[in-house]
Structure formats: C-alpha cells, structure tokens
UniProtKB/TrEMBL annotation:
InterPro entries: Aminotrans_3 (IPR005814), Aminotrans_3_PPA_site (IPR049704), PyrdxlP-dep_Trfase (IPR015424), PyrdxlP-dep_Trfase_major (IPR015421), PyrdxlP-dep_Trfase_small (IPR015422)
Protein family (similarity comment): Belongs to the class-III pyridoxal-phosphate-dependent aminotransferase family.
Cross-referenced Gene3D superfamilies: Aspartate Aminotransferase, domain 1, Type I PLP-dependent aspartate aminotransferase-like (Major domain)
PROSITE patterns for this protein: AA_TRANSFER_CLASS_3 (PS00600)
Organism: Glutamicibacter ardleyensis
GO molecular function: transaminase activity
Alphabetical UniProt keywords: Aminotransferase, Pyridoxal phosphate, Transferase
Name of the protein in its database record: Aminotransferase
Length: 447
C-alpha cells in the first residue's frame, strides 16, 4: 500500500542516517528496503514482489513467516521471554534433544550460541582443550564467521583485515575439482592429490601442534563445491591418524539445505564436533551451536568448560528451533529439498549449461546450488576476479533483480538457494527469471 511504501522510505532515510552495515563501505551502499515477507516472497521498497532464491543469507530454510514458528515464538514470549543460561528451560531442553537426535554418530550434547561465528569459536576452544594442541587447520575458499578467530580460519578476503594475529591458523588448499589447485583432471585424482597435500601440510606443520581441523562439509558462500568422492572420508582418516579433532562446519549446509539433515550424511562421515546455526530455526531468532561427541564431553565432565554466553539457549530462539525442526519433519521438507534438487533445479541448471556459454559449471544438491559464470569456458576465466565483483557481474545481478528475483551472488557465481518448501511452480518461475540474467552474462563471453 501507499502507506507501507511511505513508511519504507522513512525507514530508508533513518537507515542511511544511523545504521552501520556489515561488510560495506558505508557511503555508497544503497540497501534494498524490504517491506514485507511471506513464504518464498519478499516485497521491496517500491512494493514489488520478488521471489527469494537467496533464503536471505541462506538461512530461511523453511521460508518466511512460517505460521507454526511464528506461533511458537508468540507462545514462548507469553510464557518465559528470557532466562539465564544456567537454568533449565523446557524450550532449550527440547531443542537440544531434537538436534542431538538428528546429528550423526554420538554427537549427543549441544552447546548453544548466538550464531555461527561463536559456534566456530567455541568448537575450536573445545578442540584445543581436549587435545592440548593449539593450531587449527582450515581450507582456503571457505567462510566460518566474522569474529576474530572465526574470520581467521575463514579462507576468503574478509580475513585480511584481521589476520595480523592469526592465532595458530594454517590454511590448506581444498579439493575443488573445477578449479583444481593440483592440476587434476578427474575427481578421483583430485581426491587423492588433495589428501596428499593435506597430509603433507599436517606433517610439515607438525601433528603434535595441531588440535583441530575445521571444514565446511559443502563449502557454502565460497562456491557450493561438493567434495569429490572419498575426500571427506580421507580427511576424517587423517584426523584419526594424527590425533586432530574434526570440526564439521554445517552452519550453512546443515538442517536440510543439502537434502539431508546434515551434509556429512551424504558421505557417512562422523565428525567430533559439528557447528550449526542459520537453518536450525530458519533464522527467525538468532541461534547457533556446537554438537559435541561423547569423548569431548568426557573432557569436560569433571573439568570446567571455560566459556559461556548470556543468551546461550535463549528460550525464544530455542522455541523457534523446536517449531522449525518439527515443521521440517511434519511437512517432509528434507525429502522435498532432495526432490527439488534432483527433479527441478539440477535438470534446469544442466539446461542452462547447455544453452548459455557464460555458464562454466553448475553443481549442487538439495536446495544448495551454484552457477559459475565465466568469460571463457576453455580458460574458465571468471566473470569477476577472485575476491571482488565486476561491472559485468553487477549487470547480471541487476538483471536478476529486474526480472523479479532476490538472488545470491558471490564473486563470479550465482547461487540458487531457495527455501526447502518453495512450491514447484514458484521455483520453476524463479528459474525462468534467472535465465534472463544468464542472457546478460552471455554478452560478456569473449571466446
Ligand atoms: N560458518 C559458515 C559455513 C557460514 O556460512 C557462516 C555464515 O554465513 C558462518 C559460519 C557464520 O555464521 P554467523 O554469520 O551466524 O556468525
């Protein structure tokens, strides 16, 4: 309505006057106003309806304003809006049970945090205390959060501003078949060479100094590049061989996004610690956490765990998690995410590859897909250089928005990461709209 649009314009002015935004040069930033959200739609500041294939920051896994989750938050607010972490609270207890029942292996104990970055911080702290070893291995082309240690284990340019004190973080090259760092031409070769490189890194750094290895089971923001067959199992074996705690970061890949409850399930790997956030409650109230194995739990059975947060296991966030996980279960959303990937997104992206020379590769699983845009298929020259955007990518993203989409873009990639319960016809319409952006990308192909 005209009033909503007017209110949006007022909010925009206040935002520009007073809000300091994440990851931005504040001056030129021109954020999109969102007036309203529902299911897989958002309405921008002009009142235009857009299909959200970004799931915001890949966290609204069950779409916007799910009535059961909204009702659960209301109910919890009426009952106990907040309580300190040392007290038992039914919402927290139930959320912990539902999560522990779904995490793999013996990850039966849940430490709640406010989001993903602090989950990563605590997982590393637990691993260091458990092993008595300080160094942390993590992959280039990864994202693990914005706080000091989490951004240091991150393997992307957001780390550069904070890496004057890296606190024992060592990066290794990931297995990434499309842009192999090892000159591999097959997946099998990539697995073998990436594991050899990782083992060499461990030996050269000194296994006796390395407490933890953290790896996104499917790297998210860094490109949704699936690990080739055998890679995660190989990583797991190396951590056994050298006494290193394996931390699976499932902040983005977890809670159904990959078509399984957790992405490690695709490869039958059981980590020692698993970090989650985002999809655990579809992002309706900030929540993250660490799922902890029995062995690491034992370390802290008699010995104090030196860490905590005022809002650990906040009742509103946990009530939202209980309702979200229950809705995922009752509405069969995990299987639906798998089906959407297999029957709609995958085949359509394959057609994009066939029809659009700017598409270098498509890959993904469930509702977790990436399109690599290139200027040249042969050389794989990306449409934006690593670490930044480009005039070409900006045009592609603008075309997606003009076609009625809220897209997710990173460097030279477009990600297709809708909600797990997006209706088939809305998803098909979204992919039709996305193709408009690919016609624009094709203009920049040089070969
Ligand atoms: N780990 C992964 C894999 C992520 O994708 C993210 C956020 O995108 C984080 C950690 C950090 O989570 P948060 O932004 O909730 O701190």
């Amino acid at each position: 309505s005209a009033e909503e649009i007017q209110a949006g314009k007022h909010a925009y002015q206040l935002d520009r006057d007073h809000v300091f935004h994440s990851w931005q040069a504040q001056g030129p930033f021109a954020p999109m106003t969102i007036l309203k959200t529902q299911d897989s739609y958002v309405w921008d500041g002009e009142g235009r309806q857009l299909i959200d294939i970004s799931s915001q920051l890949v966290n609204t896994n069950i779409g916007h304003q799910h009535p059961k989750v909204i009702a659960a938050i209301h109910e919890q607010a009426d009952k106990i809006a907040t309580i300190a972490p040392q007290h038992v609270n039914d919402a927290r207890s139930e959320a912990a049970r539902l999560i522990a029942e779904r995490t793999p292996g013996d990850l039966n104990r849940i430490f709640f945090t406010n989001g993903g970055a602090d989950a990563v911080e605590h997982a590393i702290r637990m691993a260091r205390l458990h092993t008595g070893k300080h160094k942390v291995l993590s992959a280039y082309r990864s994202y693990h959060g914005g706080t000091h240690l989490a951004v240091n284990v991150t393997g992307d340019p957001r780390r550069y501003a904070s890496d004057h004190a890296t606190d024992g973080v060592v990066h290794f090259f990931p297995a990434y078949p499309y842009r192999s760092y090892f000159g591999s031409t097959t997946e099998a070769e990539e697995t073998e060479r990436a594991l050899k490189h990782l083992e060499d890194t461990i030996i050269l750094e000194g296994a006796s100094t390395i407490g933890a290895l953290i790896l996104e089971s499917i790297p998210g923001t860094a490109g949704i590049y699936l690990p080739p067959a055998g890679y995660l199992a190989g990583v797991w074996e190396l951590t056994r061989k050298y006494g290193i705690v394996y931390i699976a970061d499932e902040v983005m890949a977890g809670f159904g996004r990959s078509g399984e409850w957790f992405a490690v399930n695709h490869w039958d790997v059981t980590p020692d610690l698993l970090t989650f956030a985002k999809g655990v409650n579809s992002g309706y109230v900030p929540l993250g956490g660490v799922a902890i194995s029995e062995a690491i739990y034992e370390t802290f059975r008699e010995r104090q765990y030196p860490g905590g947060l005022t809002y650990s296991g906040h009742p509103l966030a946990c009530a939202a998690a209980v309702a979200t996980i229950t809705a995922m279960e009752d509405e069969n959303m995990i299987a639906n995410a798998k089906r959407l990937g297999e029957e709609i997104i995958g085949p359509r992206l394959e057609r994009f590859y066939a029809d659009h020379p700017s598409v270098g590769e498509v890959r993904g699983t469930g509702v977790f897909w990436a399109i690599e845009l290139v200027k040249n298929r042969e050389t794989r020259e990306p449409l934006a250089a690593y670490g930044g955007s480009s005039a070409e990518m900006n045009e592609v993203v603008a075309a997606a928005k003009a076609a009625g989409l809220l897209p997710f873009a990173n460097f030279n990639r477009l990600h297709v990461v809708p909600a797990m319960n997006i209706p088939d016809e809305v998803l098909i319409e979204a992919l039709d709209r996305l193709e408009q952006a690919l016609f624009v990308a094709d203009k920049f192909v040089t070969a």
